[in-house]
């Protein structure tokens, strides 16, 4: 039963939709009447889909969004409050998603609240609609974050702003989120998926093995000291060049980078 008395959408697969085009998979949370709240069905299906796409050689980039009008309103609190369920339990070793190597872009089309905010923070970067808004209401509901909020939110906006969001529970609009560094871009609502797909296509055009190793290095460096980060990067670079140093191919790609840069600046 949902919080308006309607029957719950159960375990049907259509609570999360997937569309693959041009090596980009768009994953859509699909409980719009519930503002895409994370019930048991979504919490089961979403990591299954991410795992399947991670293994799919025809996919290089993942995009996560919500069916309008919301990105994700967080946990389905009616389900959480009335049953002994797994709602709220981390689904992967860290956070709501299983381990992955492929980049994940969040296309934030509306509100991202509490668990929905944590879901957004677990993306590699965020593109927001002008209608997007962000809030941490853990303390208002009386629960604790378990999907990385206290790590990822300060990384994005700074510790004092993160504390402000958590202490007040107030919403941060798209323009403020951009100014604070929570999102990378804000675009008109009707252009959100087009712009996100454009960026995803840019990601696809890279050497995927190199990109995935670079993202892995970011993950390895995060949480270490600056000195350790330098050591990790240097060791990775040396090991990579020893295995993949192909002068002719590197020169070809270098020229392609120059040509692309000229085209973008013209």
Strand content bin: 5-15%
The main sheet comes to: 6 strands, mixed
Mean pLDDT: 89
**Per CATH, what is the topology of the largest domain?**
2-enoyl-CoA Hydratase, Chain A, domain 1
The CATH class label of the largest domain is Alpha Beta
What distance separates the N and C termini? 56 Å
Distinct helical segment count: 11
Q: How do the strands line up in the largest sheet?
A: 1-2-3-4-6-9
Instruction: Compute the CA-based radius of gyration.
Output: 20 Å
Shape: globular
Helix content: 40-55%
In total, how many domains does the architecture comprise? 2
CATH homology superfamily of the largest domain: 2-enoyl-CoA Hydratase, Chain A, domain 1
Report on this structure.
The protein has 266 residues and is an alpha/beta fold. The chain has helices at 40-55, 77-82, 115-121, 138-141, 149-157, 159-168, 174-180, 192-204, 208-221, 226-244, 247-265, and strands spanning 16-21, 24-29, 61-66, 104-108, 111-113, 125-129, 133-135, 172-173, 185-187. Helix content is 47%, strand content 15%. The chain starts with 15 loop residues before the first strand and ends with a helix.
Question: What distinguishing features does this structure have?
Answer:
266 residues, alpha/beta, 2-enoyl-CoA Hydratase, Chain A, domain 1, 2 domains, six-stranded mixed beta sheet, 11 helices, disordered N terminus
């Amino acid at each position: 039963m949902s919080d308006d008395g309607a029957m719950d959408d159960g375990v049907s697969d259509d609570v999360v939709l997937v569309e693959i085009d041009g090596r980009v998979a768009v994953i859509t949370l699909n409980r719009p009447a519930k503002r895409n709240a994370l019930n048991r069905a979504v919490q089961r299906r979403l990591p299954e889909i991410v795992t399947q796409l991670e293994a799919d050689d025809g996919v290089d980039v993942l995009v996560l969004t919500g069916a309008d009008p919301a990105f994700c309103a967080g946990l389905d609190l009616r389900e959480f409050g009335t049953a002994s369920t797994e709602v709220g339990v981390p689904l992967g070793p860290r956070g709501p998603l299983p381990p992955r190597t492929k980049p994940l872009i969040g296309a934030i089309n509306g509100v991202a609240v509490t668990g929905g905010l944590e879901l957004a923070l677990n993306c590699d970067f965020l593109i927001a609609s002008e209608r997007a808004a962000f809030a941490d209401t853990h303390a208002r509901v009386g629960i604790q974050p378990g999907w990385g909020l206290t790590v990822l939110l300060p990384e994005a906006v700074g510790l004092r702003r993160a504390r402000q969001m958590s202490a007040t529970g107030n919403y941060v609009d798209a323009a403020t989120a951009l100014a604070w560094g929570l999102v990378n871009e804000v675009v008109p609502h009707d252009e959100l998926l087009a712009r996100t797909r454009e960026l995803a296509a840019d990601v696809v055009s890279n050497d995927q093995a190199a990109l995935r190793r670079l993202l892995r290095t970011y993950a390895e460096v995060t949480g270490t000291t600056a000195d350790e980060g330098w050591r990790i990067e240097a060791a990775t670079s040396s090991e990579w060049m020893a295995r993949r140093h192909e002068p002719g191919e590197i020169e070809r790609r270098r020229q392609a980078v120059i040509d692309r840069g000229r085209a973008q600046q013209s």
